[in-house]
Amino acid sequence: MEWGVLLRASDSLTEEIERVRQSALSEIDSVRDAPGLDSFRIKYLSRKGAIARLFDELRNAPASERPVLGKKLNELRSSIQLIFQQKEASLGSLSDRKAPSIDLTLPGRQRWVGTKHPLTQTLEEIRRIFLGMGFRIASGPEIEDDYHNFEALNFSPDHPARDMQDTFFITEKVLLRTHTSPVQIRVMESQKPPVRVIIPGRVYRNEAISARSYCLFHQVEGLYVDRGVTFSELKGTLVSFARQFYGSKIEYRFRPSYFPFTEPSAEMDITCFLCSGKGCRVCKYTGWLEILGCGMVHPAVYRFVGYDPESCTGFAFGMGVDRIAMLRYGIDDIRILYENDIRFLRQF
Ligand code: PHE
Fold this sequence. Notes:
Layout lengths: L1 H28 L4 H11 L5 H9 L7 H33 L19 H15 L3 E2 L5 E3 H4 L11 H4 L9 E3 L5 H9 L4 E10 L11 E11 L4 H16 L5 E8 L2 E10 L16 E10 L1 H7 L7 E8 H9 L12 H4 L3
Parallel strand pairs: 1-4
Antiparallel strand pairs: 2-3, 4-5, 5-9, 6-7, 7-8, 8-9
The structure holds phenylalanine.
């Protein structure tokens, strides 16, 4: 009878030890943090924990069984202490890494490489071609006086052509230049012939803003003055430019025109490079694109700058860079060139 009871007692303690071992082993796996580990410690290893309770029960076991059960219990305690310490170490190394936590699965930061503005690219190409033909670069102020913007360019005070250039006046005699031609005057004022310059720059006009015109745009002016410069040199220079810029296959034509500061004056057209002259929306079904204004420098201009109109001859031309860039890149609204929209600019 006694044996049976004792047997049951020791059996149940052995079972109990195994149950505690199994549950500790499975619970330790789900411990993820310090509070979790602490609950584990309290549940199993504290003075009122599962192992302490089993040692208490050991006192009720028959003396002959105690050594074996005690050994089993000691073994259980050390193995639970071991898994506890291992867990503690692995959680510790996790929290060590926490400070500068690096998530290696995150996509990297992309560095955007900047691009040149389409106007800059167009200007650079124009500059390159004229530098190759022996021109140098000149520049002048964007805030001009009436004398350089109009008077010295042979616009008399009541000249009707002044109206064509919708001017932003700052005072009665000071204005935002409406074209780059005033720099022709400044260059000739400051040096004797021969002169061979191109003048890229911003110009301003007080026009209604639309897809086709903006209050500011860019021009490249050209000026070549020497002795005996002829109209055929004007044509030769501009045709050479157009073939280098638009392609060797283009056809061209010069139409008579009028500017107060050139005589004779002309406008240069090239065959539309989008439709090869067949006619399309861009060339308004004419097959031709107007690309610049030009002419032989008017003798009156030489008198204003102190050049001798009897011995000097030369030519000048001016082209709109924005229009050229728009044609070149298929841009249908001039305003987008000035909005600095990164989605637009990134395309170039
Ligand atoms: N300045 C003129 C314009 O803005 C263009 C031009 C320049 C014409 C030089 C002839 C010679 O329209």
